[in-house]
Amino acid sequence: MAGRRPKGDGSITELPNGKFKVRIEVNPVGDKRKWVTRTVDTITEARKTLKELERQKETGRLIISRPETFKEFSKRFLDDLSREGELKESTLQDYFYTLRFWETLFGDLPIQKITPKRVQEETIHLKKKYKHNTVASFLRVLRRCFRMAVDEKIIMENPVKNGKATVSVNVKKALQIITEEEHKELVEHMKTHYNKFKENHIVTPKTLFMPMYLLTFETGMRIGETVGLWKKSLVFSENLLNVENNIIKVVGEGLKDSPPKTESSIRPIYLTDNMVALLKEVLEIYKEIGIDSRYVFCNKEGSPFYATYLNDAFNDFKELAGIDREFTFHDIRHTNASILLSSGIDMKTVSERLGHSSVTITFNTYAHSLKVNKQRAASVFQAQAGSLFR
Question: Taking the CB of the first residue and of the last residue of the chain, which one, N or C, has fewer CB atoms within 10 A?
Fold first, then answer.
């Protein structure tokens, strides 16, 4: 058994199972004496743990009256990430909303009580409500949060194992593609509202929805890139649009400009003549009614639209068009990619146009669209063969 330290200091005790218990008294908030205990595998790790606990005690970090809850720890985790400054503001916002979701499940539970079994049970419920990628994203953030708890020796193992908690998640659902008939029907209803903007100068997400929808349909831009499009990013003389801004929602601050998702998301996209004419028309009307803004699409005050407003408007137009199947504004982007790939545009060009960080992402996302090209390749040889096989 490892030797004990003098009374008042921390102690290391070897347990019957061969592990080592590290124990140190802390300065209590109340009258009762309090201790912090950690269990580790080796004597070397025990000594390091005790040294770290002593350092925390000296700096006052061990002045506790009860175990740290998940809600408390996740807030501290976010504060540390924010101070480090390594993550983009938009990524921090994703972490904030993800951890706030986990708080509804684990909020007041001490983090030591959150076990791999508990995480697995919650994952089983999540997979019934959300897509595979969403669940995987939730778990990645939670895993990183608990990694800090492991590093601080608050827990001995991460309850979110790499890949383990996602084993039984549903297979990724097929992408939803807007059909040509649905597209035409949607645009007809959008035109009616767009005329209210042209003729009556009514400025709302619904009256401006048609140009935003058609721009997204033609370019495959992300929703934040569409609502965050700057006027200076348009080069009409070259039929060119430069994607260089993205709108994010910051808690307590509202909408803010942010760099696009990745470095490769900063990209040029060439536009059709019809799209250039439509964008010019929008900007000319804004000028006529005295709206001055750096954004192409904005409200009367010159501020960009919330992405949620576009999602709500899209759902309204789907209802008007009699479309009851599930797809979202983001599926306009998927539709764009599928149309390009099915038309024979090479994967690298599509990847660059979408702003993906690699061609692999494009391939994995839209592999289903390649089936059309494979079938077309066979038909080419069929046509060339003519009557040779007859």
Answer: C
